[in-house]
């Protein structure tokens, strides 16, 4: 009798995928380069890096050769690091899209800022489709690019940070609408999120006059 569906990725599969992506980024290799070196198609590699399917033992052996490590090391926790995280598109995607929309910034412009993530992976993340492995440094760079607290992207379940940052974004959008293009999102001091939103509403009313 044949096997059923593989099911969600195991801890072992997650560890392997995280380590492979971390080592790829540290080596400065593109997805296409690593996939080619491991004799895989790019789409095959990406589906496994995104944990849609697990790498098999032949894959792990080939990736170990391509990355210059022993195959069993790819499952070792000592290779993994918090520097690479598994970002949930459903949670992080809307936040990235909001930041980009507020300042009319494109995905191409973000990539040009020096992000390590592949453009296709960033598009998938922003669109909210699936999970993507991304360096924490990329998320910090994006937060700096938009002048917001990095916890907004790194700790999306922090309700206080979310409320504060989204109030700042609302104010920024309102100020941009009336021509105040240079507002700094963290330059408003200790004003409460509710007060920021009240200011934004006032500005929108002025703009509507």
Give the helix/strand layout:
Blueprint: H1 11-27, H2 31-37, H3 42-49, H4 57-67, E1 84-88, H5 89-102, H6 107-112, H7 119-127, E2 131-135, H8 136-145, H9 151-154, H10 159-177, H11 193-208
Antiparallel strand pairs: 1-2
Helix pairs in contact: 1-4, 2-3, 5-7, 10-11
Q: What does this protein look like?
A:
- The protein is mostly helical and 209 residues long.
- It has three domains: 11-75, 434 Repressor (Amino-terminal Domain); 84-154, lambda repressor-like DNA-binding domains (434 Repressor (Amino-terminal Domain)); 158-209, no CATH class.
- The protein contains eleven helices and two strands.
- It has helices spanning 11-27, 31-37, 42-49, 57-67, 89-102, 107-112, 119-127, 136-145, 151-154, 159-177, 193-208; strands at 84-88, 131-135.
- The protein has a two-stranded antiparallel ribbon with strand order 1-2.
- Helix 2 packs across helix 3 (42-49), helix 5 packs across helix 7 (119-127) and helix 10 (159-177) packs parallel to helix 11.
- The longest helix has 19 residues, at 159-177.
- It is elongated and about 65 Å long.
- 29% of the residues are buried.
């Amino acid at each position: 009798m044949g096997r059923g569906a593989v099911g969600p990725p195991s801890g072992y599969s997650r560890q392997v995928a995280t380590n492979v992506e971390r080592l790829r980024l540290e080596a400065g290799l593109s997805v296409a380069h690593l996939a080619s070196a491991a004799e895989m198609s790019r789409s095959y590699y990406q589906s496994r890096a995104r944990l849609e399917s697990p790498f098999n033992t032949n894959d792990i052996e080939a990736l170990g050769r391509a990355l210059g490590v022993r195959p069993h090391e790819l499952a070792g926790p000592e290779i993994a690091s918090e520097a690479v995280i598994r970002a949930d598109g459903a949670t992080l995607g809307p936040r990235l899209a909001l930041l980009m929309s507020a300042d009319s910034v494109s995905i191409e412009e973000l990539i040009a800022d020096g992000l390590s993530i592949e453009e296709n992976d960033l598009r998938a993340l922003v669109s909210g489709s699936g999970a993507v492995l991304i360096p924490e440094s990329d998320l910090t760079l994006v937060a700096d690019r938009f002048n917001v607290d990095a916890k907004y992207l790194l700790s999306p379940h922090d309700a206080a940070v979310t409320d504060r940052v989204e109030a700042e974004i609302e104010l920024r959008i309102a100020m941009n609408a009336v021509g105040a293009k240079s507002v700094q999102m963290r330059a408003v001091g200790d004003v409460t999120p509710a007060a920021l939103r009240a200011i934004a509403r006032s500005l929108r009313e002025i703009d509507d006059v």
